[in-house]
Amino acid sequence: PEKRPSSGGIWYGGRGEGDSERGQGREGDQDTLGPPRPLEEGPCQRRAPPRGWGTPVGGGGLAPSTKIARAPSKPSKTSIEGVLKAVGRSASGGAARVEAQGEAKRRVAGKQVEEERRAGGAAHLAREDSTQDASSRLAPEGWVNAVSERMPQREGPRMSINVSLARSSKTILSMVARNLNWIEREREETRACLHWVVTPEELEGRLLVRKPNQRMSRIPGMYMLCGKVKFAELFRLLQRREPDKYNFIPRTGIVPDDPEEELRSIVGKGYGILKPDEGTQGDGIYLVKDMEEIKRRMDCIHVESAVLQSYIKKPMLLDGHKFDFRVYVLILSLEPLRVFLSHEGLVRVCTVPYEEPSRQNLHRKAGHLTNYTLNKTNEFYEHNDDPQNGARGTKRNLQATLRHLARQGHDAEDLWMQIKNITGLVSGALGRAVRGEVEGFDRSKLWPLGVYRTAKMSGCKTPFGDPSWEGWERDCFHVLGFDVMFDEGGKAWLLEVNCNPSMAIDTVYPSTSPPELPHLDEGVEALVSEAMGHVRGKGVHVCKCTAHHRPHLHRPCPIDLAAKHSCVNGALSIIHRDYSARKAGAFASPEELAEGLRYDVIFSEA
Ligand code: ADP
């Protein structure tokens, strides 16, 4: 049941589709921005990580870039080039060709940037006369083709994916499977190279019957680690050791564990934001001013624990509205730890103009929180159905928005580099924490009790000794959603890592007649018509479900489709290359795995 605060603070119980899979968990690019380059040494990245901790690639010049690594124990039977060629990088492959052309263009653009930089020194994006050029470097032409081209796979092992437990991700997975020519399996017990699971319980169940080399879409332990309190515990530990490196997470306290004095200092003279541990999609969030309010809110939301964060009160705005970025990160494996950042993502904009928090506006949740679930029912929700347009809409395409910001005089390249730096450092830390390599962090709390019980039954003290878990660090992957916002000074802040980012592609129109779609790029249009058959009511039948309080229509959202199709398409392609390489006894470097795809390597262990 929804509860509302009696006075002050924000509470809102969003329902329906949103930023994460409801109830299942807490729910541009290097190439486009120019050639790979190390970040300038900034305050957040002064120290290199200890040996063996891997390399956040492209982040702060922390360590040399990764080398092509081959498994020493298993001599390569097949050349890696041969394997990769077989899985869709052949010169004759349509998608490969399109992507290669895009890549070539990006390289040329990248070279130009590098030359400009050498010739004219820094701040090439800030030059007034070059803002147009700069914006065109942010997103390469042809990304739409990259999502619509079919990837031929006549050679190499044909991949299969089991989507029986995929829930709201099923539509996008089916579309991508078709695009990549994978076999789709719908019955739970059917064998497949890859099982798409969502909850930790399903993952646990599947791990027990997993076949060698079979891939799982979740990393055990990640679900717990991305919970608000566990995440805060881990990063407080890391921040204490290396405050300059992890200075992109707002000061966070744990309620009720932390002393009142500490909590008071987090709120300071401004406001704090109180978030319940298990909350998602803006659920149960309050802005608070003092200890009394914190206590009152804790009673209201009936949770055992919550985090209190200092509220960033001067955010960067888009036409006077607060916004944040949702970026997608693929952790391909824990052993070795290899992480990739998708170029495509979303921008979520508030529907009410932003005002600094005060007693008068705290109730205007749609001005303070960017969650889609909260904003979709607002009368000012603006549908922007064109992924190429970053200038309008409540939900926008990430790269198009970066281009728009560049045109408005922001250093969009720097914004993107900060995102890369943060995602690289954080996913590296998450990976090490799940592997039990962060000193002082107890990883045993990351596994549900059931895992230990099952392990005990088969005579093991820990699940890792159980034979069915053999190779889990290599075969489990995870797509994480990072929420990043910027303050008015252009500094990035990580708000949350969502272990279960929504892959739903539909949106609701509170209308009984189908809205006109704008003229869309051919590739996106094809995706929309393909997705139309999958959405509730086929896009034309009026629906009265709880997704909206008014009669509405469900339609595929072109913004979601473009971002999520590209993200999943790239992720599955990387997994396929890795799978095929391993089957052939070879080991592909992360750069080889991501080549020609709209992904960057952001963390890698040699
Ligand atoms: P949830 O998991 O419920 O979505 P988040 O941590 O993502 O919780 O917070 C929800 C929204 O609240 C964010 O999308 C952002 O708009 C806003 N928000 C969260 N933390 C802060 C903060 N420290 N300062 C300003 N705004 C914040």
Helix and strand layout, with pairings?
Elements: H1 29-32, E1 55-56, H2 80-89, H3 94-120, H4 131-138, H5 143-148, E2 160-162, H6 170-180, E3 183-185, E4 194-195, H7 200-208, E5 215-216, H8 222-225, H9 228-241, E6 252-255, H10 260-267, E7 272-276, E8 286-288, H11 291-301, E9 306-310, E10 317-318, E11 321-334, E12 337-349, H12 365-368, H13 372-375, E13 395-397, H14 398-407, H15 412-434, H16 449-457, H17 472-475, E14 478-486, E15 492-498, E16 506-509, H18 522-532, E17 553-556, H19 558-583, H20 590-594, E18 599-604
Parallel strand pairs: 2-3, 2-4, 4-5
Antiparallel strand pairs: 1-18, 6-9, 7-8, 7-9, 10-11, 11-12, 11-14, 12-13, 12-18, 14-15, 16-17
The structure holds adenosine-5'-diphosphate (ADP).
Overview features:
606 residues; alpha+beta; 4-stranded parallel beta sheet; 20 helices; disordered N terminus; nucleotide-binding; ATP binding; tubulin-glutamic acid ligase activity
Summary?
By secondary structure, the chain is an alpha+beta fold. It has helices spanning 29-32, 80-89, 94-120, 131-138, 143-148, 170-180, 200-208, 222-225, 228-241, 260-267, 291-301, 365-368, 372-375, 398-407, 412-434, 449-457, 472-475, 522-532, 558-583, 590-594, and strands at 55-56, 160-162, 183-185, 194-195, 215-216, 252-255, 272-276, 286-288, 306-310, 317-318, 321-334, 337-349, 395-397, 478-486, 492-498, 506-509, 553-556, 599-604.
